[in-house]
Specification:
- InterPro entries: Mab-21-like_nuc_Trfase, Mab-21_HhH/H2TH-like, MAB21L/cGLR.
- By secondary structure, the chain is of the alpha+beta class.
- It has a domain of 88 residues.
- The protein has 9 helices and 7 strands.
- Strand 1 and strand 2 form a beta hairpin.
């Protein structure tokens, strides 16, 4: 945050913003995850209190309930005949020049100028936590975009997962990661010219290979950092 604070410090019109941000950082200007999240929780709670925890749309009143879990802030909307949740995850947008990835992976940021840092709460809770995790959602979206049958493949694999109790822990991001590796390994024409059933068979075969690689839970390397195994977190 040093660069941001230096810029704001020299802008009299942003004095209030500068003073407020200084409360969220350490003595070395590192943004503290817990203070950032507490600030957001306070702002959301005050807003909902002013709204009396309800909203009216088209003559229908819905009750609003707020909760936070991990990095996410969730508002449950309860109508008489409908219930749904809206998730909000704060992200710090950073210039791609600040990214820490191998040269091989940087090719996917050719037309993407930024990436994001997501708050990472620690367990057990620790004060003055400065942990954030990298998110490359925009680059992942660009990789998946215009891959013809790929979107159908994602839907089929998720439906298959939801129908089987023994693979319920296969998170959506695990499925995305598996496909990111396949996008990287296969020509773009593959997703257009191959039949959907052939692609599905290939992808399930790749998933099976990940599950039986080694150890109790197999292995699925994170696409952006292959030294990290996503399946290692399974319990």
């Amino acid at each position: 945050m040093t660069e941001v604070l230096n810029i704001l410090h020299n802008q009299p019109q942003n004095k209030i913003t500068f003073t407020f941000l200084k409360k969220l950082v350490t003595s070395t200007n590192l943004l503290q995850e817990n203070k950032l999240q507490d600030m957001i929780k306070g702002a959301v709670t005050r807003a909902l209190n002013k709204m009396e925890n309800k909203i009216e749309v088209d003559g229908k009143t819905a009750q609003l309930m707020y909760k936070s879990c991990g990095p996410a802030h969730t508002i449950d909307v309860n109508e008489a005949d409908m219930k749904y949740s809206v998730d909000f995850v704060p992200a710090i947008k950073l210039n791609v020049k600040q990214i820490v990835l191998s040269q091989e992976k940087l090719k996917y940021f050719k037309n993407i100028p930024y990436w994001s840092a997501i708050p990472k709460p620690l367990k057990p809770f620790e004060p003055n936590n400065v942990s954030f995790r990298a998110s490359y959602y925009e680059a992942e979206y660009a990789m998946i975009k215009d891959k013809y049958k790929l979107k159908h493949v994602i839907k089929f694999i998720k439906k298959f997962r939801d129908s089987k109790q023994n693979i319920s822990t296969l998170k959506s991001y695990y499925i995305k990661t598996l496909l990111l590796w396949q996008i990287d390994a296969r020509p773009t024409t593959y997703w257009k010219t191959q039949q959907l059933n052939k692609i599905l068979i290939d992808m399930f075969r790749e998933l099976a290979n990940c599950l039986v690689t080694s150890g109790k839970y197999g292995k699925l390397p994170l696409f952006w950092d292959p030294d990290l195994d996503l399946f290692a977190a399974l319990t």
